[in-house]
Design brief:
This protein has 307 residues and is mostly helical. The chain has two domains: 100 residues, DNA polymerase, domain 1; 187 residues, hpI Integrase, Chain A, CATH 1.10.443. The longest helix has 20 residues. The protein is globular, with a radius of gyration of 21 Å.
Length: 307
């Protein structure tokens, strides 16, 4: 890879704005691709890469028992490689196959772990559990859960969200689009939990006036992903939910609800932070198979006296 794109991880961060951790993950997938080409007797220069090389690699990954999500991640890494090579003028044209050629390869990989959806009754129990709790983090976590269920936002965007991105008057939040620009997302039933947290509880977490993150930890800094996972698991157990409560489950519930409400797939994908429309198509297809026999979950309505 050094011959193709020296300092790949640094270039990905500089050119595309990815974090060091994400850049290293992409580099790991690309090394697998290069090892595949070497094993096939094709240690070709980047300008000779072809669609068949990509399809062959993904097919080999599927034949080795990789789950569809893993194969899809490998594809995403190759897309990043293609973009970097094009931007640094190391290649003149792309080598990623069109989506119609990729669907069959992805379908041949192991299906992802079952994608389930919460029901309206599940959300009702979860809301009641959080509203009845005396813990100060309950209000914070309910606000985050509501945003996850209403729009399916990526957790990392919510953790990075700052106060200037929240517009209580317009009942909306502004989050970065894939291209980096802020996009306005109107709030419906997630508005009340967020308003409740900001007006009643956030100040309890603040340790420094300069701290602008919306969701704060017990120490007063930005909340971590690990803390979110732990909190969701605990609240799910307290609400006696059958499935383990995770960001994936909440986001799937949001996507299914939006799909049933005829929200356009490109809007669903944008809300969920998908960089590739194929990701959205595959998710919606899984949800039709896993959840289509149940009505979409409705977010509970918080009454005024709870605010």
């Amino acid at each position: 890879m050094n011959k193709w794109l020296p300092n790949f991880t640094e270039e990905v961060q500089r050119l595309l704005g990815y974090s060091p951790t994400t850049a290293r993950a992409y580099a790991s997938d690309i090394r697998r691709f290069l090892d595949y080409l070497k094993a096939q007797g094709r240690p070709v220069p980047p300008q000779e890469l072809s669609e068949e090389d990509v399809i062959g690699f993904l097919r080999a990954e599927a034949q080795q028992g990789r789950r569809r999500t893993t194969v899809h991640r490998r594809l995403a890494s190759l897309r990043v490689l293609e973009r970097c090579l094009l931007m640094t003028q190391r290649i003149e044209q792309g080598f990623i196959p069109p989506e119609e050629r990729l669907v069959d390869v992805l379908e041949r990989s192991l299906p992802p772990r079952p994608t389930t959806c919460l029901s309206s009754e599940d959300l009702q129990r979860l809301w009641q559990t959080l509203l009845a709790s005396g813990k100060r983090q309950a209000s914070r976590d309910l606000a985050m859960i509501a945003l996850l269920v209403e729009w399916g936002f990526p957790v990392n965007l919510l953790l990075k969200m700052e106060m200037h991105q929240v517009d209580m008057e317009q009942k909306a939040v502004w989050l970065p689009h894939v291209g980096g620009t802020l996009e306005k997302w109107p709030l419906d039933r997630a508005y009340a939990p967020l308003r409740r947290y900001l007006s009643q509880s956030r100040n309890d977490f603040v340790r420094r006036e300069s701290e602008m993150h919306v969701f704060l930890s017990q120490q007063g800094g930005a909340l971590s992903r690990q803390s979110v996972w732990h909190a969701l698991r605990q609240w799910g157990m307290m609400a006696n939910l059958e499935a383990m409560l995770t960001p994936r489950l909440l986001r799937a519930t949001a996507a299914y609800r939006m799909m049933k409400a005829n929200v356009p797939p490109h809007t669903i994908g944008a809300a969920m932070g998908h960089t590739n429309p194929l990701s959205t198509s595959l998710l919606l297809r899984r949800l039709r198979g896993a959840c289509n026999d149940q009505p979409p979950a409705e977010l509970p309505l918080i009454k005024d006296e709870a605010l």
